[in-house]
Design brief:
By secondary structure, the chain is mainly α. It contains 10 helices and 3 strands; from the N terminus they run E-H-H-H-H-H-H-H-H-E-E-H-H.
């Protein structure tokens, strides 16, 4: 299922969502300007590499990460890196669809903090469930999964216009958000479980299923802890 838009109303301009889409796009264009070898080195340095965190916790510097900043900062920086055009477009498209409503609910600054915290939580989940892996994780999908988790709790009855392929034709259905997002979460969980029993996942790239699961659950939790802004957009307050 490919979501196109939702019918949940919003009452303010989603400046932070626009900013995040622009920032991620600009960083990706900067990545493209680098030679392939330098881009790979950038991913290894600023992507979330479980092996680096393990080495820091063990007090070992053999992989070049000798302090907390070098080991932990990639949990933040990794969410602004993308591996391909498809990776970037897919993430930004979903953020465009669901981010505006969550930002409208929380307010601009709380929404930005929410996004960053869920992104870091997603990175931690990926590290914990791929302990010792040398493969860097990059992408905003963990933070966006947090946005999706929040949207699920805030607007479960909202309808999502979705492309549903039926063999050789494509149909357009309005599907309740709880079905679209619930199906997506289940797919990520099952994907993570299958990956865990694979013998190749530790040494090769792929989808960061556990980052998606961790970000989604973190978003559901945080949206219950952060109070809704009440009519603040009418007065221009953050």
């Amino acid at each position: 299922m490919i979501p196109l838009r939702d019918d949940a109303p919003r009452f303010s301009t989603p400046y932070v969502t626009y900013f995040l889409i622009a920032l991620n796009s600009m960083v990706f264009l900067m990545e493209l300007a680098l030679p392939r070898a330098e881009r790979d080195a950038l991913f290894y340095r600023l992507g979330a590499v479980p092996q680096h965190l393990v080495a820091w916790l063990a007090g070992s510097g053999h992989v070049g990460h000798t302090n907390a900043v070098q080991a932990l900062l990639p949990l933040f920086t990794s969410m602004f890196l993308h591996a391909s055009w498809l990776h970037l477009i897919a993430n930004m498209w979903v953020l465009w669809i669901f981010g505006d409503n969550v930002e409208d609910y929380l307010g601009h600054l709380p929404y930005l903090l929410f996004y960053l915290v869920t992104g870091v939580a997603a990175g931690i989940a990926q590290v914990l469930l791929n302990w010792g892996s040398p493969v860097p994780t990059v992408g905003a999908s963990g933070a966006i999964a947090g946005v999706m988790g929040a949207f699920l709790l805030l607007y479960p009855r909202a309808k999502v216009l979705t492309i549903v392929p039926l063999i050789i034709i494509f149909t357009f259905w309005w599907i309740p958000a709880w079905i679209v997002l619930g199906y997506w979460f289940l797919a990520q969980f099952l994907g993570g479980a299958v990956t865990e029993i694979s013998t190749a996942h530790a040494a090769s790239g792929g989808v960061a299923f556990w980052a998606h699961v961790g970000g989604f659950l973190a978003g559901m939790l945080l949206i219950k802890l952060i109070p809704q802004r009440v009519q603040r957009y009418r007065y221009g307050a953050w």
